[in-house]
């Protein structure tokens, strides 16, 4: 399992600014595990500071701020409030003011506990700088570390990272454009955006900022609102594009088609004409609102995609027009067009089939990193693979065969031939106790590694198949759905995690020579983007050499997304379902 490392994001920035800048002391006793976001802004540091040091600066720059009344300004005794669109009111009490560099403050509900926040401006050159916000959240600080890290990793960190990214981008918007950032400009947030009515959201693209009275609200890929081209470039008409929208949580029937004007890439972004998008079980959990990365509707699902770059925003040099790229946006893939940060795009070797390539991004990326980064698999080891006929399962089998693993794999009986062809001994989980079967097949020796994407109590049973020194990697909770129906219980992003947390605590308190770990591709990618790029380049190379042959279950048109979810939920396909979004 990849360990959580306590880092101080602000230290690197302060060290880069040189000895003239005081070092940020520990903000509060016991405050650990900071969360931060930074962005390069095409403006001098002095210009960014002029905005940052202006009283009431949150109103024109903060995408979730309704108003920003100031009580005292400027300096170390500064005090103001932020009234969020959701109705929350937080007070900001400044503790250090560093002229031209940034400030440190505490933020929280009046009379309640406070988080510590550090704002820093790092000059890059004469015409640009980086703005970084680092938060030391009070949430979970009183929870024992053995329990705290799981909700921090899967819930608090992703939501705060999204929020901070939107805030930094809001300041970039105001500094570079000289106009207030539209509310929810970079996507809605479950904590800080206004509450939506119970009626059906409109799928029409807005002609003004979200939240304006009388204006319909719509969101292009990834839940990111972009104005129609006519609102920023006169009456120049551009062709429309289509995308799939989840307008409320539920079954496959909540997927709708929306048609909108093509989005325009912002600075640092590239617009991608999507050729193929993968359909994954994570998409189904997102649709139901029970995945840790689930977005508040409306949003466009789609974790992985392959496409060609058809337009570049300012300051983009990492990719070129016409280049074929792959991406893991988490949301937004079910679309004919999407704008993404250019730094997140992965170059795809020429001549590869887009449907085959998209099968690698999430499924093989997950399988490869679990095998090599989390479990540190060695050639010849024994492995138990659950859900072996699915997208990640077949990827694990192919990669395991390359390492000469001795593999045992659970699958329904009709899929045993496929599992056997991919080099594993199939186990009929529907009619056989896989724990007993593994014991028989290994003559009581157990396996070295288990890859469990089922979750819940299934993890405890998988753990019993490990030998001493073995490793179990848990990476999903497929038991949340039976067919296409959500199993009874509260709809929550943390669904299934309490059971897993209890098992982690038990094994931490009573070690037995075996290890249980959790893998999350989006979390590891955020922590080590270099690993993700390196691993995907390796996989693309293996595909080009024809050493990998991903199983593509079906190729379906974008409009058939609901049918794709139905098939995947019923477990009636083997391999990866691919949506063909454009040609």
Structure description:
28% of the residues lie in helices and 26% in strands. The chain has 583 residues and is of the alpha+beta class. A hairpin with a 5-residue loop joins strand 6 (102-108) and strand 7 (114-125). The longest helix has 33 residues, at 145-177. It is globular and about 75 Å long.
Secondary structure: elements and pairs:
Blueprint (H helix, E strand, L loop, with lengths): L8 H8 L18 E7 L3 H8 L5 H4 L3 E3 L2 E3 L6 E6 L4 E10 L3 E7 L5 E12 L2 E9 L8 H33 L51 H4 L7 E7 L8 E7 L7 E11 L1 H8 L16 E8 L11 E4 L9 E5 L4 E2 L6 H21 L7 E4 L5 H12 L3 E6 L4 H6 L2 E5 L5 H8 L5 E6 L5 H6 L2 E9 L6 E2 L2 E2 L10 H13 L5 E4 L2 H7 L1 H16 L7 E6 L3 H9 L6 E5 L3
Parallel strand pairs: 16-17, 16-19, 17-18, 19-20, 20-23, 24-25
Antiparallel strand pairs: 1-8, 2-4, 3-4, 4-5, 5-6, 6-7, 7-8, 9-10, 11-12, 11-14, 11-25, 12-13, 13-15, 21-22
Helix pairs in contact: 4-12, 7-8, 7-14, 13-14
Rg, nearest Å: 24 Å
The major pleated sheet works out as: 8 strands, antiparallel
Helix content: 25-40%
How many helical elements?
15
Question: SS-based structural class?
Answer: alpha+beta
Could you tell me how far the N terminus lies from the C terminus, measured between alpha carbons in angstroms? 40 Å
Shape: globular
Number of strands: 25
Average residue-wise pLDDT: 82
| Proportion of residues in extended strands | 25-35%
């Amino acid at each position: 399992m990849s360990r959580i490392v306590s880092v101080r994001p602000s230290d690197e920035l302060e060290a880069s600014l040189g000895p003239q800048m005081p070092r940020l002391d520990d903000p509060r006793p016991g405050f650990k595990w900071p969360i931060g976001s930074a962005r390069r802004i095409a403006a001098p540091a002095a210009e960014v500071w002029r905005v940052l040091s202006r009283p009431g600066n949150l109103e024109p720059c903060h995408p979730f701020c309704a108003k920003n009344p100031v009580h005292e300004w400027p300096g170390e005794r500064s005090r103001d409030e932020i009234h969020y669109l959701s109705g929350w009111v937080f007070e900001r009490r400044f503790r250090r003011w560093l002229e031209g560099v940034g400030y440190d403050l505490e933020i929280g509900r009046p009379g309640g506990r406070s988080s510590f926040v550090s704002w820093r401006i790092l000059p890059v050159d004469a015409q640009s700088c980086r703005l970084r916000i680092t938060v030391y959240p009070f949430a979970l600080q009183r929870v024992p570390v053995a329990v705290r890290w799981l909700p921090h990793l899967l819930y608090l960190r992703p939501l705060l990272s999204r929020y901070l990214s939107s805030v930094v981008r809001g300041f970039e918007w105001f500094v570079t454009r000289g106009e207030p950032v539209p509310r929810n400009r970079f996507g809605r947030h479950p904590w800080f955006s206004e509450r939506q009515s119970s009626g059906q959201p409109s799928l029409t693209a807005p002609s003004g900022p979200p939240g304006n009275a009388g204006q319909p609200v719509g969101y292009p890929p990834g839940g990111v609102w972009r104005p129609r081209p006519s609102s920023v470039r006169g009456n120049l008409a551009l062709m429309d594009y289509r995308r799939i929208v989840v307008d409320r949580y539920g079954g496959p029937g909540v997927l709708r088609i929306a048609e909108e004007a093509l989005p325009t890439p912002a600075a640092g972004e590239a617009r991608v004409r999507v050729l193929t998008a993968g359909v994954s079980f994570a998409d189904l959990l997102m649709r139901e609102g029970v995945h840790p990365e689930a977005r508040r509707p409306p949003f466009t699902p789609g974790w992985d995609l392959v496409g060609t770059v058809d337009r570049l925003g300012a300051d983009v040099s990492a990719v070129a027009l016409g280049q074929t790229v792959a991406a893991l946006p988490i949301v937004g893939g079910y679309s004919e067009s999407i704008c993404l940060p250019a730094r997140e795009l992965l170059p795809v070797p020429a001549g590869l089939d887009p449907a085959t390539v998209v099968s690698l991004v999430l499924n093989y990326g997950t399988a490869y990193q679990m095998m090599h980064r989390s479990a540190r698999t060695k050639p010849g080891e024994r492995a138990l693979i659950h859900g072996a006929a699915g997208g990640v399962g077949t990827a694990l089998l192919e990669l395991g065969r390359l390492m000469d693993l001795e593999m045992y794999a659970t699958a329904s009986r009709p899929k045993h031939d496929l599992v056997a062809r991919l080099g594993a001994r199939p186990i009929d989980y529907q009619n056989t106790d896989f724990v007993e079967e593994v014991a028989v097949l290994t003559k009581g020796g157990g396996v070295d590694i288990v890859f469990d994407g089922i979750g819940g109590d299934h993890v405890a049973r998988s753990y019993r198949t490990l030998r001493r020194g073995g490793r179990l990697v848990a990476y999903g909770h497929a038991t949340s759905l039976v067919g296409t129906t959500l199993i009874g219980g509260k709809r929550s992003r943390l669904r299934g995690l309490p059971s897993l947390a209890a098992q982690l605590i038990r094994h931490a308190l009573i070690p037995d020579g075996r290890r249980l770990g959790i893998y999350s591709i989006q979390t590891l990618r955020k922590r080590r983007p270099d690993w993700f790029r390196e691993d995907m380049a390796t996989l693309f190379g293996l595909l080009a050499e024809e050493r990998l042959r991903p199983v593509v279950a079906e190729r379906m048109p974008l409009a058939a997304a609901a049918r794709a979810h139905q098939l995947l939920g019923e477990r009636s396909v083997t391999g990866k379902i691919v949506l063909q979004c454009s040609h």
